[in-house]
Amino acid sequence: MKVQFNGKIIFYSMLMSVLIFAVLAFGQEANQGQLEPQDEKEVVAVIDGDEVYMEELDQMINLQQTMIQIQQQNPQLVNFLFNSPEGQDFIEAFKRSQLEELIIKKLLEREVGRESINLTQEDKDRYFNEQVEMIKQQQNMSDEDLLKALNNQGIGSMVQFKQMFLQQESENLKIRKLIETVVLDKVEISDKEAEEFYNQGEYRMEFEEIKDQIKKDLAQRKYIDQLKEKADIEIVLDK
Fold it and tell me: Between the CA atoms of 113, 115, 118 and 124, what dihedral angle is there, to the nearest 10 degrees?
C-alpha cells in the first residue's frame, strides 16, 4: 500500500479516483506520441491580472506520476475515452474542473496571506495526528502496519513522515486553518438555510445530528463564492 497525504481540504467537493487522473495522463501521451514538458508560460487562466500557467495545472493533475498506473487499468475504457467524442468531452470537462479547483486554491492562498495565517506547533501536531488516524482508519491499519508501510517506501520513522507531511501540505494546512478560524466567523448560516440544504439531499443521519457540519460546509461554499465574485477571473484554457 502506498501511503498518500490527503491534500484535499473539506471544501473541495470533487473527489476523483486515480483512474481518472491516469486516464487523462494516458490521453495526453496518446495524442502527443509522448509527454513533452509544458511551456511554463502557457497561460490557462488570469486572476486579477495574475497569470496561472499550464505547468501548475499539470502539477495538480500529476500527469507524470500517474502515467505508469494507466497501463494496468481498463484498456477498453481508455480506448473509449480517447477515441470517441463523448470521451474527449469528458476529458476536457475534467481538465476544466481541475483548473477551477486550482483557481479556488489560489484565491484561498491569497486570503491566507491577507489574514496572516500561520501554523502553530499545536496546529501542526493536530493536523498530523488527524492525518495518521485517517490513514489507519481508511486502510484498516495498526500503528505497526503503518510504520511498516512507511518503511517500505523508504520513510524510516514517524518523525520523518511528519516532516514530509508538514512540508508537502503546508499551504493546504494554512488554508484549512483559514477556514476554521476566519471563514466560520465571517460567514453566518442560519438553521433555515442548513435545513433547506439538508432537505435537498439524502442523508442517513437526522438533521440535528449533522446540522453543524452542514453549516460549516455551506459557510465554506459561500465564502468561496464571495471570493470568486470579487475577483476578475478569466479562463483561457483551450481558447
Answer: -110
What are the cell numbers at 136? 489507519
Between CA 214 and CA 203 the distance in angstroms is 11
> CA angle at residue 44 from 40 to 49, to 5 degrees?
95
Name the phi and psi angles at 53, rounded to 5.
Answer: -100, 155
Q: CA torsion, points 121, 127, 132, 133, in degrees to nearest 10?
A: 120
Residue indicated by cell numbers 496561472:
52
Q: Is 52 exposed, middle or buried (0-12, 13-18, 19+ CB in 10 A)?
A: buried
Length of the chain, in residues: 239
**Mind giving me the DSSP string for 48-71?**
TTEEEEHHHHHHHHTHHHHHHHHT
Burial class (CB in 10 A: 0-12, 13-18, 19+), 41: exposed
The end-to-end CA distance of the chain, in Å, is 40
At 1, list the grid cell: 500500500
Whole-angstrom distance, CA of residue 122 vs CA of residue 144? 25
Cell triple for 91: 476529458
- pLDDT, one tens digit per residue, over 92-104 is 888 888 899 999 9
The tens digit of pLDDT for each residue in 177-194 reads: 999 989 888 899 999 999
Residue 38 has what DSSP assignment?
Answer: P
Q: pTM score, two decimals? A: 0.75
Helix axes 121-139, 158-168, angle to 10 degrees: 110
